[in-house]
Design brief:
The complex is a heterodimer of chains A (305) and B (364). Chain A has 305 residues and is an all-alpha fold. Chain A contains twelve helices and two strands, in the order ααααβαβααααααα. The longest helix of chain B has 30 residues. The chains are: A mainly alpha (305), B mainly alpha (364).
């Protein structure tokens, strides 16, 4: 029984990582007033870029870098359209999702061909933490993970510190609450929104690469399958706070992990219902526990000088 | 004076968006290692090159007009419906169930009931998201997306289990009865009666929103929920109705696709018509004529894409890239304006919308 629990925790940590990374990136941009429903598309491009980078350079970290750079680039496009041109954030986000699907699928077809056996890609490897990994039960579950898993968890207090204990964080939050006042005080609203969106793009790209090269070791069409949207829900569910987001990501990750476990255990339940678990859980979380939390006041609105 | 420039830009900017989407799409095709001219030539051949090609374009435009209406009617009430894909699947499922199992119904009636079932199936799925919103305050943007995945998985379960054709290898339902099939309008082509249903839906959309009291309330709620509440309107009722109608329109997309083209239910029978609807409504500015025209345009892309893959070997997914460019160029159209004009456009747009829709001509 204990084995089962710790194995489940290990699986939960693995599956929550892309959601946590993506959501921690988006908490910056959301706090500054941007809602990016194009997260799914950016993660998809990150997944492809990671695989492509690893394929072309033969090194996973080169792949990770390409993924982060491409995520930043697409986020820059989002920033230009929504911040500089005041375009509707939801519509631009929807456009980015279509772009992400089309671009990643087309490039994958050209790069890897159709119906061929997937090439061997350099993927993220498990990095055990010395000594700690030796602890019975806990060790294998918590300290024999891939580097990005540790990174995602370590980022929770770091992001919290930046947002709530530094001057930069104060500015970011102020821009999301009352951009006009910030402008009067000499805080550059446009630059803040650009910067936070680019940060979120880097995180989203990295999160995408973890899906293609951490959970699997290849790219398949539309492989993010809603994780970008779930990350968006995790930000709302976590009440725009890193600690809350960690909790939300653990919950959504648990849905995913549970689904894998049940499938593997050969249950009677048709697999389609197991695959539904993360999506049903997201809706349940949104209707059950959120509602009282209010997001940043200027969230989703363009700022006109 | 100002009015006329705005009207002109309203007509020109979608055309500019299409032009730039074709230009950038061509660049993308070139960068992927294909010949853009050959690609576009085969795209044109497959979409407008013959009578058959033209009718295929219309066949592809039918579901897009419905899903475009599904996005537009929700948007008019201030809701963002990203769930047309799931609503389409539920509509297709209900229509199939009636088409296959209710074959005791007389001809004519059977078809009508199957179409109505499509409206109900999609409508329930849309109203569910609307209910989550008005009752629990859950963002319809996220819940409609989650409902897309759930609908698609549910259909996958049905066609591999309870609804699987009794003697068959494939995960698909039995064929619907002949009496539930949409008749062909033009012999020798796949153009079916669903096109007329789509035209009726466009007329209904116009009539409902601009000629009825409920439609008026819906638009006021969409423009200014606070004012609507202050005027004593039931905003929750409007939002629910709008989401039911949005789902109903999208459900018809699935129903006509099954009853007119596929004749049976199987997993992923929509190649993304639900998501294309967002672009269709956006390009058509949520107006009936605009949705019709942009539905035809996106139908052209869909119909031509297969020929493009066949003749020029360009992957079908390139069409998504072009659609994304259309969306991004429509929303980014103020790129062509100076900063000052951009603000003016934004402000005058909401203002002229109010003028046209609330009918207060004497606003300053």
């Amino acid at each position: 029984m204990m084995d089962w629990i710790f194995e489940f925790i290990a699986a939960d940590l693995r599956t929550m990582t892309p959601i946590l990374l993506a959501a921690l990136g988006m908490v910056f941009s959301e706090r500054a007033g941007s809602v990016n429903i194009g997260a799914e598309g950016i993660m998809l491009i990150g997944a492809l870029a990671g695989a492509a980078g690893s394929f072309l350079f033969g090194n996973i970290w080169a792949g990770a870098f390409v993924a982060m750079a491409s995520g930043a680039l697409i986020a820059l496009l989002f920033a230009y359209l929504t911040v500089t041109l005041y375009a509707d954030q939801i519509v631009v986000g929807a456009g980015l999702n279509v772009l992400g699907l089309g671009l990643s699928t087309s490039i994958a077809r050209v790069l890897f061909g159709v119906n061929t056996t997937p090439p061997q890609l350099d993927a993220y490897k498990i990095v055990p933490i010395p000594l700690l990994e030796k602890i019975p039960l806990v060790g294998p579950a918590l300290f024999q993970q891939k580097l990005l898993v540790y990174l995602a968890v370590a980022l929770v207090p770091i992001v919290h510190f930046i947002l709530f204990r530094t001057n930069i964080g104060l500015k970011i939050r102020a821009v999301g609450e009352h951009p006009k006042a910030c402008d009067t005080l000499g805080i550059n609203v446009y630059r803040t929104r650009y910067a936070t969106l680019i940060i979120s793009g880097v995180f989203l790209g990295l999160a995408g690469s973890y899906v293609s090269l951490g959970l699997l070791s290849f790219f398949t069409e539309n492989m993010i399958s809603g994780r970008g949207f779930i990350a968006l829900a995790a930000v709302v569910f976590g009440k725009w706070k890193p600690k809350g987001i960690l909790f939300a990501a653990l919950l959504f990750g648990a849905g995913d992990a549970l689904q894998f476990r049940l499938q593997a255990s050969g249950t009677e339940i048709p697999y389609q219902f197991l695959l539904m678990v993360p999506y049903v859980l997201t809706i349940a979380a949104l209707i059950g526990l959120v509602g009282k939390a209010k997001g940043p006041a200027a969230r989703g609105k363009p700022y006109l000088k | 004076m100002r009015k006329s420039t705005i009207d002109l830009s309203k007509a020109v900017s979608p055309l500019l968006a299409i032009f730039f989407a074709l230009l950038f799409g061509g660049a993308a095709i070139y960068l992927l290692g294909f010949n853009p001219l050959a690609a576009y030539a085969s795209l044109a051949k497959g979409s407008v090159g013959s009578i058959k090609a033209v009718t295929e374009t219309i066949v592809k435009a039918v579901p897009l007009i419905f899903t475009g209406l599904g996005f537009a009617v929700a948007k008019r009430c201030g809701m963002i419906n990203i769930g047309a894909e799931g609503q389409l699947y539920m509509g297709g499922l209900f229509a199939t169930a009636v088409g296959v199992y209710w074959d005791f119904l007389p001809p004519g009636i059977h078809l009508l009931v199957a179409l109505a079932a499509g409206v109900v199936g999609g409508g329930i799925w849309g109203a569910l998201a609307g209910w989550f919103k008005v009752r629990f305050g859950a963002s319809e943007i996220i819940t409609t997306i989650m409902l897309n995945y759930i609908a698609s998985l549910f259909i996958s379960f049905l066609v591999t289990g309870p609804m699987k054709e009794p003697k068959g290898e494939f995960p698909q339902s039995s064929q619907i009865a002949l009496t539930a099939q949409l008749p062909r309008i033009l012999p020798g082509t796949r153009l079916h009666l669903g096109f007329i249903v789509a035209l009726l839906a466009l007329a209904f959309f116009y009539y409902f929103l601009w000629k009825t009291a409920s439609g008026y309330e819906m638009r006021v709620v969409g423009m200014n929920p606070e004012a609507a509440r202050y005027a004593g309107m039931n905003t929750a009722k409007s939002s629910l109705l709008a989401m039911f109608m949005a789902g109903g329109f999208s459900g018809l997309a699935g129903a006509t696709e099954i009853l007119g083209v596929q004749f049976r239910l199987f997993q992923n029978f929509s190649p993304g018509y639900g998501f294309d609807g967002i672009a269709v409504a956006l390009l058509g500015r949520n107006t009936p004529i605009g949705i019709f025209l942009s539905g035809i345009l996106f139908g052209t892309l869909r119909a031509g894409a297969n020929m493009m893959q066949m003749l020029a070997k360009v992957p079908v997914s390139v069409i998504s890239i072009m659609q994304a460019f259309v969306i991004l160029f429509v929303v980014g159209r103020s790129f062509f304006e100076t900063r000052k004009n951009r603000v003016n456009i934004l402000e005058s747009e909401s203002e002229s919308d109010l003028d046209a829709e609330v009918g207060e001509g004497d606003r300053v």
